[in-house]
Design goal:
Helix content of chain B: under 10%
Largest interface: A-B, 23 and 23 residues
Order of helices and strands of chain A: EEEEEEEEEE
Strand content of chain A: over 45%
Distance between the termini of chain A: 34 Å
Helix content of chain A: under 10%
Oligomer: heterodimer
Radius of gyration of chain B: 13 Å
Number of helices of chain A: 0
Number of strands of chain A: 10
Order of helices and strands of chain B: EEEEEEEEEEE
Largest sheet of chain B: 7 strands, mixed
Radius of gyration of chain A: 13 Å
Number of helices of chain B: 0
Shape of chain B: globular
Shape of chain A: globular
């Protein structure tokens, strides 16, 4: 099983600042089969990024993903009020998906 | 518009059984794999189970294998999760999620979730 470790656990930033979230895999994620999701309280997860760096439909360009192998990053260039949420990475390279434990982005 | 509507969650005693249902609309249901993913306060998101588009392939997380069974009825655009021998650690919000291909891939659409509470 590929274990995903996200850091930091909580990130405290202000509106307009840049957020950098990390996701590290215990072994290489083939073909960059890594996705990022945003989850606001009481809502369903929302797909942000797939293939490590491809923005999903309708996702603002302030969200960007990068990385390969075992190290991946989600960057939010200028934080808006609606961006404060929990973010999860997910690998779908193997037949058993795994998620990171999440990073909470708070004001 | 893609919609996934879960139902069936409730409060259930340890050792009990429950069946969750997810009704899909807005896409060609029999062309896509489907999954269940749960959210627990302490562990975050956890993949539970997946089923291929034609129902011929299923797989499960180790934590639920042998206790949960995933299935689908393509004639009714519906998938199910039969849960038995429930434990306190199964308490979670259960989401129905659509994959992007016939058999695998990331999740492009999610339902709003149904709450399962296992407690005596």
């Amino acid at each position: 099983e590929i274990v995903l470790t996200q850091s930091p656990g909580t990130l405290s930033l202000s509106l307009g600042e840049r957020a950098t979230l990390s996701c590290r895999a215990s072994q290489s994620v083939g073909s960059s089969y890594l996705a990022w999701y945003q989850q606001r309280p009481g809502q369903a997860p929302r797909l942000l990024i797939y293939g490590a760096s491809i923005r999903a439909t309708g996702i603002p360009d302030r969200f960007s993903g990068s990385g390969s192998g075992t190290d991946f990053t989600l960057t939010i260039s200028r934080l808006e009020p609606e961006d404060f949420a929990v973010y999860y990475c997910q690998q779908y390279d193997t037949s058993r998906d795994t998620f990171g434990q999440g990073t909470k982005l708070e004001i | 518009e893609v919609q996934l509507l879960e139902s069936g969650g409730s409060v259930i005693q340890p050792g009990g059984s429950l069946r969750l249902t997810c009704v899909a609309s807005g896409f060609t249901f029999n062309s896509y794999a489907m999954s269940w993913v749960r959210l627990t306060p302490g562990k975050g998101l956890e993949w539970v189970s997946s089923i291929s588009a034609n129902g011929g392939y299923t797989n499960y997380a180790d934590s639920v294998r042998g206790r949960f069974t995933i299935s689908r009825d393509n004639s009714k655009n519906t998938q199910f999760l039969q849960m038995s021998s429930l434990r306190a650690e199964d308490t979670a919000v259960y989401y129905c999620a659509k994959r992007v291909t016939y058999s695998s891939g990331y999740f492009d659409y999610w339902g709003q979730g149904t709450l399962v509470t296992v407690s005596s």
